[in-house]
Amino acid sequence: MNCENCKIIKNIKNYTKIDYIIALVGNPNVGKSTLFNTLTGMKVKVGNWPGKTVSKIEGYFEFVKLQTNQKYVFKIIDLPGVYSILSFTPEEEITRNFLLTSNYDICILILDSTNLHQSLVLALQVFEITNNVIAALNLIDEAKRKGIKIDISQLEQKLKLPIIPIIAQTGYNIETLIDQSLQVIQQKIKSNPIKYSLPPELQNIVEEIKIELIEYYPELENNPLLRWIILRILEGDKLIIELIKNKKLNQIQISLTK
Ligand SMILES: Nc1nc2c(ncn2[C@@H]2O[C@H](COP(=O)(O)OP(=O)(O)OP(=O)(O)O)[C@@H](O)[C@H]2O)c(=O)[nH]1
Ligand SMILES: [Mg+2]
Q: pTM for this one?
């Protein structure tokens, strides 16, 4: 899977068009800004506090496939670190609203090798709203130091998406990460991440609400996010409820259907 013939060019200035947009998503402190800086050559603050990213930051880089001399300009967006996208904190709101309403070609989900459990809580929530996703397993140097071993191919089979081990700090394997992202964007590799199943009691409630909701809002019937929308209504999610009431749910990019 290595991409020896791929090159990343940072600090690009004279580009005429952007080919693809990447959104970086992950828990706080997993190395999103470090990866962003390694790819773009920018110097966004990294570290836990006070370097914490609380707004979205944009940068650019070029990806070149040396054998064919194909070149692609990428825009990359460093989103605030979040533990969930249920939209309770300002950071969660920025990240969640970006994933729902903005235009991006792929979401790179940064997983922390040293705290995989916490990373996967967020991952399952991201998989609910987009299929255009690839995972970067970061901090593999730290995991190795701590004696943590991760069976990547088993994790890939379980989550049903490509997972690329990287070290954002040194740039190890980042060409492969971008090459694989490109292949997912161009649909040469399929990413169809798992969706969690609901307990039967909750599933029944969702089905009941679905019938009533469609009666009032028939346009929702074939919306691939319908289950997710109903779960958000049950939680009292203000943004979603407002969008439904004002019949503005079409503002949400339904990237599950892309
Ligand atoms: N050893 C090691 N350290 C890393 C790696 N990637 C990032 N770090 C370090 O991890 C810390 C957090 O990195 P950031 O890039 O600020 O993390 P972030 O995900 O942007 O954090 P928030 O903006 O708070 O969400 C920094 O001290 C980085 O230097 C890596 O691959 N290996
Ligand atoms: Mg950051």
A: 0.90
